[in-house]
Specification:
Elements (H helix, E strand, L loop, with lengths): L1 H20 L5 H4 L3 H4 E3 L4 E15 L2 E8 L7 E4 L4 E8 L8 E3 L21 E7 L7 E6 L6 H6 L4 E5 L2 H4 L1 H5 L1 E10 L11 H6 L5 E4 L6 E6 L2 E8 L6 E5 L4 E6 L2 E9 L2 E3 L4 E7 L6 E7 L26 E11 L21 E12 L3 E6 L11 E4 L3 E8 L5 E5 L4 E6 L2 E2 L8 E4 L4 E7 L5 E7 L2 H5 L3 E7 L3
Bound molecules: CU-O-CU linkage (C2O) and copper (II) ion (2 copies).
Length: about 475
């Protein structure tokens, strides 16, 4: 089943690429080895060999010297099921240290599991091992490096891959009948076949590249049957770029957020994805046959003038001044009986009353000898300081307040949360999130239940440059008394 999906995906991708080059080769001959792009667990286990590499890498029909997993951007998609044992033999062929983080997975943050405090030096290997809990929700998760100080650089240079948990949502009949399309949104900057280093100011604001790709391609075309459904599974794998998505003439029916399924589809006209966030939407093939564009609309993620270097820049920060086409949906074929939207997509139980409330203030300041730093409650990250000890088995309510001049997407490892309010307004949608946008001068409240896994993990801004510049803290999950 997955193989069929894979070869169709590759077929379309290769077809588009070859059409662009004007080569008349049969697409089948160009199909890559099936297991190179998608690695699927079997019989309750998966073994993956993953190598971090630096070198010429195919990107948008050309080649650039990038950092990658296995020589491709994005890295291979890993697919598991609840209860699976994951063994990932990782080797670091980069000229610098790195490590791995499994973003959004509810697995131990310690040992050789989702432990971001591990460091794998250049040329060394490490085997990651963890079990996906039996009750883990289905969803779109991802992996990327997480070595403090190098995260933004390594992700910007190309390191990111999808980590998918298949489960109940995949069995909802209408969802199962939909055509599935993954979309990893990622920007790059390439000049003369390599990625130039960012300027200090670019880094402080969060680096954005002018080459915007979807699954490593520019403006791919996807097919949709008239009367059919497309299940679009989106990841923002950019370090800093936001994507304000709008699909021409089609509403988006949100069915899942970061942590998995919603209770029912939720109709959206636009969808804003900040770095680190994921969303699954259904698209109905309900228009007349044609070609419809998925746009990224302009979005201003802060004020580059105020307090961020004085009069040198001013105006807004981020994105493009005009709408940018990301991909195109092309109608092909027709269903006699149109597929309906699902009525229910899952269950999102409401979290109980919090035993404790905390407040986190996001800010920035100038530090002598360090330049601009980003802070949480006035402090920069310190790997030997436990900022937030919490009790396993309890629910807390956290308020994240942004007192800075740039938007900050706040991310918490290991345990997903439910947003309670934004800017003082109650959140209508009950959903599992692990990353939430906290816009300038606004605050967001969420509830989180700390469950299962003791140990240290982190929370941080998912503009990865800000994380590297200090906007991260350590949460310690402690066993109850
Ligand atoms: Cu996707 Cu701590 O990050
Ligand atoms: Cu994460
Ligand atoms: Cu930030």
């Amino acid at each position: 089943m997955t193989k069929a999906k894979h070869s169709r995906r590759t077929f379309l991708a290769m077809g588009a690429g070859l059409a662009g080059l004007g080569l008349g080769l049969p697409a089948r001959a160009q199909t890559r080895a099936p297991d190179a792009d998608v690695l699927v667990s079997r019989g309750g286990a998966i073994e993956v060999d993953l190598e971090a590499r630096f070198g010429p890498t195919p990107l948008a029909g050309r080649s650039a010297r990038l950092f990658s997993y296995g020589g491709r951007v994005p890295g291979p998609r890993i697919e598991v099921r609840p209860g699976d044992e994951v063994t990932l033999r990782f080797s670091n062929a980069l000229p610098e240290p790195t490590n791995l983080h499994f973003h959004g997975l509810h697995v131990p943050p310690t040992g050789n599991a989702d432990n971001i405090f591990l460091e794998i030096p250049a040329g060394e290997r490490l085997t990651y091992r963890f079990k996906v809990p039996e009750n883990h929700p289905a969803g779109t998760f991802w992996y990327h490096p997480h070595l403090h100080g190098l995260v933004a650089k390594q992700v910007f240079l190309g390191m990111a891959g999808l980590f998918v948990v298949r489960g109940e949502l995949d069995q909802v009949p209408e969802v199962a009948a939909a055509r599935e399309q993954f979309a990893v949104l990622k920007d790059f900057e390439v000049a003369g076949g390599r990625v130039p280093p960012p300027s200090p100011m670019e880094f402080v604001r969060g680096r954005e590249g002018s080459l915007v790709t979807v699954n490593g391609e520019v403006e791919p075309e996807w097919s949709l049957e008239q009367g059919g459904l497309l299940r679009l599974r989106l990841l923002n794998a950019s370090t800093a770029r936001f994507y304000r998505l709008k699909l021409e003439d089609h509403p988006l029916y949100l069915i899942a957020t970061d942590g998995g399924a919603l209770e029912e589809p939720y109709e959206l006209d636009e969808l804003l994805l900040a770095p680190g966030e994921r969303a699954e939407v259904l698209v109905r093939g309900e228009r007349k046959p044609g070609r419809y564009t998925l746009w990224a609309l302009p979005y201003n993620r802060g004020n580059g003038g105020m307090g961020m270097g004085g009069g040198m820049m001013g105006g807004g920060v981020g994105g493009d001044a005009r709408p940018r086409p990301l991909a195109h949906l092309v109608y092909a074929g027709r269903r006699k009986t149109p597929l309906p939207l699902p009525e229910r997509t899952g269950r999102v139980p409401e979290l109980g009353a919090p035993v404790r409330r905390r407040r986190f203030v996001l800010g920035h300041s100038m530090r002598p000898g360090r330049g601009m730093v980003f802070t949480i409650n006035g402090q920069v990250f310190n790997p030997s300081r436990i900022d937030t000890p919490v009790r396993l088995g309890t629910v807390e309510e956290w308020e994240i307040a942004n007192m800075g001049v740039l938007d900050h997407p706040f991310h918490l490892h290991t345990n997903p949360f439910q947003i309670v309010s934004r800017g003082g307004r109650r959140e209508r949608l009950r959903a599992w999130k692990d990353t939430v946008l906290v816009p300038v001068r606004q605050s967001v409240r969420f509830r989180v239940a700390f469950e299962d896994f003791p140990g240290n993990a982190v929370y941080h801004c998912h503009i990865l440059e800000h994380e590297d510049l200090g906007m991260m803290g350590i949460v310690r999950f402690e066993e109850g008394a």
